[in-house]
Structure formats: structure tokens, C-alpha cells
């Protein structure tokens, strides 16, 4: 009774697999023009698989048609595999592939010949040696095909693997299952009924895997030219070891005997498959294998032609990532690091975070590395192995080169400087790869060359930005020329009015028109002068003590009719500054704060003494700015977040404050507001009184 139920389930499973496979073949054939892999050949292979799935239950496991179709499906899938290698000519660059394919094709033809030779003969293993030979050929085919599937996937780039994983998984499933199935059949000299029944699910499962892969967006397949012969040899050794383990384990199961032998065989197959699936995708295992093979079988660790091609491909993909993230990725690709950071020179001689690539979550301080650490990397051109440093090897490495956040982050593995004509344009912090190894001279040489090349990219971008800025300054100068033209027209009008007044001053109508003209000209001239005054320089104004609290109160009074600007009360302080220039810089910042704030929210001005400095704060509760805008665009001219704005105000304010020996910083959060902080030197006499260091203020 149980046998009949199992037979019925097996029959239904074969029919269902055949139906699913035919549907999948039709779908793939219909979209063959848009797919990323060889879907036309895959559809043909699925049709042959569907025919085998139909013939197997109809004609029985020993039917000639079923055995012929199974052998033919092997050959067609081999053709599909070769087509995937041939998409970008990889079959031409990898010499061992074509002989392997030809050898497997010959083995497949021998299977067909053996199937025809045993027609009408008994098929028991113990009686007909041709059957045993056919199974041996099938085992050989499975081993060789799995080697090709492994090299197809292992030799592909990360982008190509996303497209290849599903067809490769489908073919690996078929040949991996048949490898186990045929091995057990060969050793036991009988076909295991349970495994034969489960085999009915293989075509349908392959169709499902191919459907998942077919629904992914097609992309160009590019493969890395690999050192194929070495990796194929390693793959063969691994499969041979697995094969030997299968033989030993099967002999142990056979010795157990009894009614549980079949159940133990199935359990062992599941356990072996689970172990293989768990180990083979391991990044750490693959990284160890890659490093071991490259270290022991080749003169050089790197294939420099491939490294250069990969570097070029990464830097050319401008549409994929911003330049600075591509810079990090290009360095990380050399060492197979999964992530990285770019630290670039800031405004005060230090290094700050410029870009991240696949490195989320780290809290990196605004000053990522101080000026001393930056000078060390600029002068020494040293590539720092952080594992060595953590192990206590600090010879010649100052503490400033490894700030606390970098030493504490276990992901940080190496620091690579980017130098352009001995000028440091940044450093790249690399994350630890899946298999971390000790960096040697070959790594250092390649990383130095790559770092210098990437510094050229950064320098070129900086030059382009400077050229664009100069062009925008020219445009700004042209705009000022238009303003000067308007002033010239006003002067001409006033000159004409003065000449006419000599002739018609006694006429009441002329005097009335003259007053109107004078009023309009005065208003227009005042507006033009106000516009010019915003961008006027104060470079010749002398430094003098400036009463800061009074200045803030004066500015708040000016904005009384426009917007709520509150100057907090408190003690008076004096700062060493240019009075008119400081007034102009504060007006820039207050105007920006007013523009960013809603009508009902006030802009707050405050001042305090901190040691030898006077600190002035301009705070608003407006829309705020993103960290990226603050870091890259806020203080650069002609970058404005306001429609029609020149983008000059913040830039002019910072230049003005620096000219007086001060500093201008900003703190901002989107949706919460912004605070500009000006630091100016105090007069020497005032800085002697510590009682001014802390001032209590009350908000009215």
C-alpha cells in the first residue's frame, strides 16, 4: 500500500515538474531579447527537461526514451553553461574552459551510446556492466559540470554574480543532486527508491530558481579574468575530497544494514548538502582560499592588468556613485575590503569626514584627525596597518596618527594616504575584509600607486570647481557692471536736471517734476548702494575695540519693522575687530536667519566671554541645513538655498571674520534650526579679568 502511494506521489510530482518547466521555458523564450543571460538556450534545456520528466513516469526508470532524454538534457545544459561563459568572450581568455566543455560533451555522447547499447538487456548492476559504466560516466559528467559552474560564478564580478546566482544555482542543484544520487546507486548497485522519488522535484525547483533570476533587471555581464587553471584545480580537489567522504560514509551506512539503511542514506544526503551549502558561500572561506592560492601558486599576489581594468571601471561609473565614494571603493577593491571612509583636509589644517562607502553607523567627530596626524601621513607617505598598531608596534607612528575613535573601531583595518605631488588630499580608512591578512610590500606598492592616481582625480575635480567658481565670479562682476550702468544713468539724469534747472527753475511745473525726479532717483540710488554695500570690502578699516552687546542691540533695532530679532541682555564685552566689517558680517548672518525662519519665530543674538575670546551667537529655529550642505556648500560662493540668491552672504561673512583673526563655525539640524558662532579676540586688558568668563543672561 505504501509503495502504491509513493508511486502515485512520484507520478504526480513528475507531471507537475514537467508542467512548471514548460511554463518557465515559454516565459523565458518570450523575453529572450531583454534578459541578461542566455535565456533562449535555457528555454531549450528546460523543454528537454520537461520531456524527460514526462517520459520518466510513463516509460519507467529503465525506459530507453527517459535515459536518452536525461543524457540529452545534460548536453543542452552544458551548452547553456558555455554560452554564459561566452557572453563577453571569457571562454576565449580562459584556456581550460573549452577543453573541459569538449571533454564533457564527449562523455555525454558516450552516455547516449551506452543507453542505446543496453536496449533489451537486463539493467541490474550486477548483471550488466554497461549499466555500471553508464553510471560512472554520469558521475564524471556531474563532477566536471560542477567545476564549470563553480568557475562561472567564482570568476564573476560582484555585479555579475547578482545576475548569475540563480541560473548557476539551478544547474548546481541538478548536478549536485545527481552526483549524490548516482554515487549511492553505483556503490549500492541498486537505485535508491526514495531518492529516485525525490528526484522528481528537481526540474520544478530549477524552473522556480530560473524564474526568480529571470525577473531581475538585466545588466551587462562582465567577468574578471581569473587565474582559471589554478582555481579549477582547487575546485577539483575539493570535489574529490567530498567524493571520498561520500564513499567512506556510504560504506559505514551499508555496514549498519537493516531497515534503517535507506533512511540513513537520505539523512546523510541532507546533511552533506546542508554542509556544502553552508560552507561554499562563506566569504571568509573564499577569501582564505583566494589568498592561499595567490600566495603559493603565483609569483605576484595581484593580477595587475585586472586590477587596473577594475580600477578604471570603478572610476568611470560616474552615474553610480559620487566621486569621493568611488575613490573609497577603488581603494577597498584592492584589498577586498567591504567598506571604507574618506577623510579630507578641513579649513583649519585637520582632517574631517568627507565620504562613506558602505560604512554606516560610526560616530566620527568633526575633527577626525588633527593637524599633527595629517602632517605625519603627508610627510611619510606611510600606509598604516592598524592591526600592527593595536598589537603594540608603534615605532615611528605618532599617537596623533591614530585618533581614539579610529583605534576603538574594530572594523578599521588600514589607513591609505592620497598624495598629489607630495600634497595630502585625503586618507582612506579601509574596513577589515572577511579574511584579514597581514599587508606586505606588494600591497603597499599597489596601494601607493592607486592612492596617487586617486589623488589626481580629486585634484582634477578641485581644479574644475575652482575654474567654475572663477567663471561664476566673472558672472557676478558682470551683474555688478549692470548696477554700475544704472548708477551712470542716474548720474546722467541728475546732470541733465541740473542743466535744465538753470533755464527753467522759475517755472512751478518744472520744479514739481524736478522734485519727483529727484525723489525717485534718490530712492533708486539708495537701493543700489545698499546692494553694493552688502558685498563691499572693509580690508582697509583698522582694528579697534568694538562693544559687542551694543552692536547686537543696534542690529536688532534695524530689523524691528521686518522680523523679530532679540538681542539678549547682559554685560557689555569688547572685541578686537573692524567695526564696519563686523557689522556687515553680522547683518549677513542675521539676514540668513530671518530668511530661514517663520514669521512667528524670533532670531536670537547673544554674546559671552570665554577666556581670551568673545563668542557671538546668531541662532534661529528655522528649517536648518543638512550636514552635507554645511560641509560642502554653505561657505562656498554662489551656492544658495534661496531662490534667486547669490550665495555670497555666508562666504563673505566667513572671509570677513577670518580677516579680523576670528573664526566662524555653524551648528545646524534639519527641522530644528541653525546657530552661527563667531569667535573674536578680546583686548589684552579685558582678557586679564576671569570674572568675565561666565555671564548669566535672562531671556525676557
Q: What is this entry, summarized?
A:
This protein has 700 residues and is of the alpha+beta class. Helix content is 60%, strand content 11%.
Commentary on this structure:
- Strand 1 and strand 2 form a beta hairpin.
- The chain starts with a helix and ends in a 19-residue tail after the last strand.
- The C terminus is likely disordered.
- Helices cover 60% and strands 11% of the residues.
- The longest helix is centred in the C-terminal third of the chain and has 64 residues.
- The strands form three sheets. A five-stranded antiparallel β-sheet has the order 2-1-5-4-3.
- The protein is built from 23 helices and twelve strands.
- The radius of gyration is 39 Å and the shape is elongated.
- The protein has four domains: 220 residues, Rhopdopsin 7-helix transmembrane proteins (Up-down Bundle), CATH 1.20.1070; 155 residues, 2-Layer Sandwich (Beta-Lactamase); 69 residues; 149 residues, Histidine kinase-like ATPase, C-terminal domain (Heat Shock Protein 90), CATH 3.30.565.
- Helix 3 packs parallel to helix 6, helix 14 runs antiparallel to helix 18 and helix 21 runs antiparallel to helix 23.
- It is an alpha+beta fold and 700 residues long.
Total number of helical segments? Answer: 23
Total of domains: 4
Widest sheet: strand order?
2-1-5-4-3
Mean pLDDT: 77
The rough form would be described as: elongated
Describe the biggest sheet?
Answer: 5 strands, antiparallel
Q: Return residue spans where pLDDT drops below 50 for at least 5 consecutive residues.
A: 121-127, 217-226, 534-539, 689-700
Protein name: histidine kinase
EC number: 2.7.13.3
Transmembrane segments: 12-30, 37-55, 67-85, 97-119, 131-154, 166-184, 190-213, 234-254, 260-280
Catalytic activity: ATP + protein L-histidine = ADP + protein N-phospho-L-histidine
Amino acid at each position: 500500500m505504501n509503495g502504491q502511494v509513493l508511486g502515485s506521489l512520484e507520478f504526480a510530482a513528475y507531471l507537475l515538474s514537467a508542467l512548471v518547466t514548460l511554463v518557465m521555458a515559454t516565459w523565458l523564450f518570450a523575453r529572450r531579447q531583454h534578459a541578461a543571460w542566455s535565456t533562449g538556450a535555457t528555454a531549450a534545456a528546460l523543454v528537454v527537461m520537461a520531456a524527460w520528466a514526462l517520459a520518466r513516469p510513463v516509460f519507467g526508470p529503465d525506459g530507453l526514451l527517459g535515459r536518452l532524454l536525461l543524457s540529452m538534457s545534460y548536453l543542452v545544459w552544458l551548452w547553456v553553461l558555455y554560452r554564459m561563459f561566452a557572453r563577453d568572450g571569457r571562454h576565449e581568455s580562459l584556456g581550460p574552459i573549452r577543453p573541459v566543455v569538449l571533454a564533457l560533451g564527449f562523455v555525454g555522447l558516450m552516455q547516449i551510446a551506452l543507453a542505446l547499447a543496453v536496449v533489451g538487456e537486463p539493467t541490474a548492476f550486477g548483471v550488466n556492466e554497461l549499466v555500471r559504466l553508464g553510471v560512472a560516466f554520469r558521475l564524471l559528467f556531474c563532477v566536471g559540470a560542477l567545476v564549470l559552474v563553480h568557475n562561472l560564478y567564482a570568476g564573476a564580478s560582484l555585479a555579475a554574480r547578482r545576475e548569475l546566482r540563480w541560473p548557476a544555482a539551478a544547474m548546481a542543484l541538478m548536478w549536485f543532486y545527481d552526483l549524490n544520487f548516482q554515487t549511492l546507486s553505483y556503490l549500492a548497485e541498486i537505485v535508491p527508491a526514495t531518492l529516485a522519488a525525490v528526484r522528481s522535484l528537481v526540474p520544478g525547483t530549477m524552473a522556480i530558481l530560473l524564474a526568480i533570476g529571470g525577473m531581475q533587471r538585466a545588466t551587462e555581464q562582465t567577468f574578471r579574468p581569473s587565474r582559471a587553471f589554478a582555481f579549477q584545480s582547487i575546485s577539483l580537489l575539493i570535489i574529490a575530497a567530498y567524493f571520498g567522504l561520500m564513499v567512506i560514509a556510504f560504506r559505514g551506512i551499508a555496514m549498519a544494514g537493516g531497515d534503517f539503511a535507506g533512511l540513513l542514506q537520505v539523512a546523510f544526503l541532507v546533511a552533506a548538502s546542508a554542509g556544502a551549502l553552508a560552507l561554499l558561500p562563506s566569504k571568509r572561506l573564499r577569501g582564505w582560499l583566494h589568498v592561499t592560492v595567490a600566495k603559493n601558486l603565483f609569483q605576484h599576489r595581484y593580477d595587475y592588468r585586472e586590477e587596473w581594468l577594475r580600477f578604471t571601471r570603478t572610476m568611470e561609473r560616474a552615474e553610480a556613485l559620487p566621486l569621493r565614494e568611488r575613490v573609497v571603493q577603488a581603494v577597498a577593491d584592492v584589498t577586498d575590503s567591504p567598506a571604507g571612509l574618506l577623510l579630507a583636509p578641513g579649513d583649519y589644517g585637520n582632517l574631517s569626514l568627507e565620504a562613506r562607502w558602505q560604512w554606516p553607523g560610526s560616530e566620527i567627530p568633526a575633527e577626525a584627525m588633527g593637524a599633527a596626524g595629517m602632517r605625519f601621513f603627508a610627510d611619510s607617505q606611510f600606509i598604516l596597518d592598524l592591526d600592527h598598531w593595536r598589537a603594540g608596534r608603534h615605532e615611528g607612528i605618532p599617537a596623533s596618527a591614530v585618533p581614539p575613535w579610529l583605534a576603538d573601531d574594530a572594523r578599521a583595518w588600514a589607513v591609505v594616504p592620497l598624495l598629489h605631488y607630495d600634497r595630502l588630499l585625503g586618507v582612506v580608512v579601509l574596513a577589515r575584509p572577511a579574511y584579514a591578512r597581514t599587508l606586505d610590500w606588494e600591497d603597499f606598492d599597489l596601494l601607493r600607486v592607486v592612492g596617487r592616481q586617486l589623488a589626481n582625480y580629486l585634484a582634477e575635480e578641485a581644479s574644475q570647481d575652482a575654474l567654475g567658481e572663477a567663471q561664476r565670479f566673472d558672472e557676478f562682476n558682470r551683474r555688478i557692471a549692470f548696477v554700475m550702468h544704472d548708477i551712470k544713468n542716474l548720474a546722467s539724469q541728475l546732470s541733465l536736471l541740473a542743466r535744465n534747472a538753470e533755464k527753467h527753475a522759475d517755472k512751478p511745473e518744472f520744479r514739481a517734476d524736478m522734485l519727483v525726479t529727484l525723489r525717485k532717483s534718490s530712492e533708486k540710488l539708495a537701493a543700489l548702494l545698499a546692494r553694493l554695500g552688502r558685498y563691499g570690502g572693509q580690508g582697509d578699516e583698522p582694528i579697534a575695540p568694538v562693544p559687542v552687546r551694543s552692536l547686537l542691540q543696534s542690529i536688532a533695532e534695524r530689523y524691528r519693522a521686518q522680523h523679530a530679532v532679540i538681542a539678549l541682555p547682559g554685560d557689555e564685552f569688547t572685541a578686537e575687530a573692524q567695526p564696519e566689517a563686523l557689522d556687515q558680517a553680522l547683518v549677513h548672518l542675521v539676514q540668513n536667519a530671518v530668511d530661514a525662519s517663520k514669521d512667528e519665530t524670533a532670531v536670537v543674538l547673544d554674546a559671552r566671554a570665554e577666556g581670551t575670546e568673545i563668542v557671538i551667537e546668531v541662532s534661529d529655529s528655522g528649517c536648518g541645513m543638512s550636514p552635507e550642505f554645511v560641509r560642502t556648500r554653505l561657505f562656498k560662493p554662489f551656492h544658495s538655498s534661496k531662490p534667486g540668491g547669490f550665495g555670497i552672504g555666508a562666504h563673505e561673512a566667513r572671509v570677513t571674520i577670518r580677516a579680523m583673526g576670528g573664526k566662524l563655525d555653524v551648528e545646524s539640524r534639519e527641522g530644528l534650526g541653525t546657530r552661527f558662532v563667531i569667535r573674536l579676540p578680546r583686548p589684552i586688558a579685558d582678557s586679564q579679568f576671569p570674572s568675565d568668563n561666565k555671564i548669566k543672561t535672562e531671556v525676557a
